[in-house]
Amino acid sequence: MDNEITLSFIAKSENEALARMVMSSFIAAIDPTIEELSEFKTVISEAVTNAIVHGYEEDGVGKIDIHAQRSDREIIVSIVDYGRGIQDVNQAREPLFTTKPEEERSGMGFTIMESFSDYVDIYSIPNRGTTVTITKKFVPIQESCRIV
């Protein structure tokens, strides 16, 4: 392992941007491409937003923990909430499934995370919380493509 970080914050929507910024800074040392950085930020945003909106019903009180490890060009990130949990993880992973259709939620959060990651694991216990673990391998940048 080259580096690791743990970040804890209150489940408020404004903290989604904080999580995205901190995690973007954490991966800066591996010099990701713009596309990789954009995808990674999207994955973090989706996972944190799910925890805030679904885990805590946007109560602004619950806590979210993020733990990330970097080994060479691979990042493993776990986003943990201690909220409502997911009743049926397989159903939640289905594209377009949402528990909040009245809020015009797209139901694409896990689908987006899976498309921009190499691996996504979801562990959830109803009324105890959810852990979403994401693995992403960043492609080495060719020296000839590097902007100096």
Automatic annotation (TrEMBL):
Residue intervals of the Histidine kinase/HSP90-like ATPase domain: 35-140
Protein's name according to its UniProt entry: Anti-sigma F factor
An example Gene Ontology biological process: sporulation resulting in formation of a cellular spore
UniProt similarity note: Belongs to the anti-sigma-factor family.
Domain of life: Bacteria
Enzyme class: transferase
Designated gene of the protein: spoIIAB
This protein's UniProt keywords: ATP-binding, Kinase, Nucleotide-binding, Serine/threonine-protein kinase, Sporulation, Transferase
Lineage: Bacteria, Bacillati, Bacillota, Bacilli, Bacillales
Transmembrane segments: none
Molecular function, one GO term: protein serine kinase activity
Keyword Transferase in annotation: yes
Pfam family, any one: HATPase_c_2
Described function: Binds to sigma F and blocks its ability to form an RNA polymerase holoenzyme (E-sigma F). Phosphorylates SpoIIAA on a serine residue. This phosphorylation may enable SpoIIAA to act as an anti-anti-sigma factor that counteracts SpoIIAB and thus releases sigma F from inhibition.
The reaction(s) this protein catalyses: L-threonyl-[protein] + ATP = O-phospho-L-threonyl-[protein] + ADP + H(+); L-seryl-[protein] + ATP = O-phospho-L-seryl-[protein] + ADP + H(+)
Enzyme Commission identifier(s): 2.7.11.1
